[in-house]
Amino acid sequence: MDNLLEWRKHKRKQLIAARETLSETIHQQWSQAISDSLKQGFPKLQKMNIGIYWPFRGEYDPRSIAQYFLRHGATIALPEVVSKDEPLCFRKWLPGIPMKEGAYGIPVPVEAKAVRVNAIIIPMVGFDQHGYRLGYGSGFFDRTLATYQPHPLTIGIAFEIQRLENIYAQAHDIAMHYIVTETGIFRTEDHELKFIPTFQCADE
User: Fold this and answer.
1) What 8-state DSSP symbol labels residue 126?
2) Which listed site, 33, 51, 75, 126, has its alpha carbon 20 to 30 Å from 65?
3) What is the pLDDT of residues 12-24, one digit of tens each?
4) CA distance 62 to 171
């Protein structure tokens, strides 16, 4: 595609605006559906080191589901931007711990232990039918995933209004293992998103 950067910039603006203009009621309903799918479809997260994110610009808020996984034995970590071209550093998070303002004004834990995560719940500005994520354009998550061998379990989170036919993935883009929206759980299989029943996901 000619001028992919401009196209992605335009799509980001559209998709973020659509998300930010959702009514509080609809946002809560869709968010609850996502939380239910995460809880019922991914029991294995209960014993894992999970990277989450601090909600930004109308994103699904993962903090309540994070507390659920915490209660069942998981370790939860939030990403910190170390520098522009470095991978993210995940730092251990618990509700109520001291926080400071990090990059883009997003809170990060203060002097918390660094955690090597084996699962990441990842926010998405958009996503496509091939399991690829459209982010904010800084490349932090892709850069971070590239440093992990094997890759952590990746679960992209978005609302259906953020679904695109194709984001025209580039060589550095990494497809999500799963994507969860208010309509359910989708798994990336052979470069295509496939709906997967919650019980089947839980059994994998």
Assistant:
1) E
2) 126
3) 999 999 999 999 9
4) 29
